[in-house]
Design a protein that fits this description.
single chain, alpha/beta, Rossmann fold, five-stranded parallel β-sheet, 12 helices
């Protein structure tokens, strides 16, 4: 099996998505990939139990990618062995009327994971510098001061938003949230094949929307804006990882391995010890329980 190292996928300097592979030959068979994933996700689940007991850290997993990149199935397969209390998934769609009455980061703040838990954002706060750049008319729904038409959007608007996002992530990191951001890097041809399967296989028809084809027409724009956003916001405290996503099984294993490696880099996540006073009397507590009469 080819070694998976987080640093091989981490964005440490500016990248060009057009020159970044969408495939990764892991050099093992599909059933072996699934076995490796199962072992890895169980280790992550065990660490989450320790993290829950420690109650000092939380983990925010951010997933972005073009339509059909495999976000939903990745969430299902990577987190399926978690204690249900330990992970909360939020899928951010078009902001509703309540969310539009607040700033664009508000709905993400209120969805952040509690200490001891994982939070997964399926589509994230980055939609506000991606979809809104492709379709700047969406900004008008936010009723921002000084912006009544698209032409009113200042030239430095997106740059300021990315600064705000960097500050948001820095703030939550400094308060105990481990932030890991994954871009599922899909080729345009693989997306075409997946959209065709949605149309050809009846059980997957419900996943298809004509809007998928409309957005596919903006492929180059999305790639450019993803590239800029990733380069501007991949920081030590909140790194981006570009994951080759043409093969779903391999992508899931890579993401799981990176999550595990990241958690193992926090040796201070450990089960709390009993107070010395309690430790000193453990045998007494055990004796008291053993001497209790059993119900007939």
């Amino acid at each position: 099996m080819r070694t998976i190292n987080a640093d091989d996928f981490k964005v440490g300097k500016n990248i060009k998505l057009s020159k970044t592979p969408t495939t990764f030959d892991i050099e093992i068979e599909k059933d072996e990939v699934e076995e490796k994933l199962e072992k890895t996700r169980k280790k992550i689940g065990d660490l989450q139990d320790v993290m829950y007991a420690d109650n000092r850290y939380s983990v925010l997993i951010c997933l972005q990618g073009m339509d059909t990149s495999g976000k939903d199935s990745l969430i299902r397969e990577v987190f399926k062995d978690f204690n249900p209390r330990g992970v909360v998934v939020n899928s951010f769609k078009t902001p509703n009327s309540t969310e539009l009455e607040h700033d664009y980061l508000w709905r993400h703040y209120v969805a952040l994971p509690e200490r001891g838990k994982f939070g997964v954002f399926n589509r994230t706060h980055y939609e506000n510098v991606l979809v809104t750049r492709v379709h700047p008319e969406y900004i008008l729904n936010e009723n921002l001061p000084g912006i009544r038409k698209v032409e009113d959007i200042p030239k430095d608007f997106w740059e300021k938003r990315m600064d705000q996002i960097n500050n948001f992530e820095k703030h939550i990191f400094q308060n105990g949230t481990i932030v890991l951001k994954f871009f599922l890097h899909l080729s345009k041809e693989e997306q075409r094949q997946r959209l065709l399967r949605r149309l050809e296989e009846a059980k997957h028809n419900w996943k298809f929307s004509p809007g998928d084809l409309k957005e596919r027409g903006f492929w180059d724009d999305y790639q450019n804006y993803y590239e800029e956003a990733i380069n501007e916001t991949s920081k030590k405290n909140a790194p981006w990882f570009v994951i080759p996503a043409d093969d779903k099984e391999t992508a899931r294993l890579i993401v799981a391995k990176i999550i595990l490696e990241s958690l193992e880099n926090h040796p201070d996540i450990k089960e709390p010890e009993l107070e010395e006073e309690v430790k000193a009397h453990i045998s007494e507590y055990k004796d008291a329980l053993e001497k209790e009469e059993k119900p007939e």
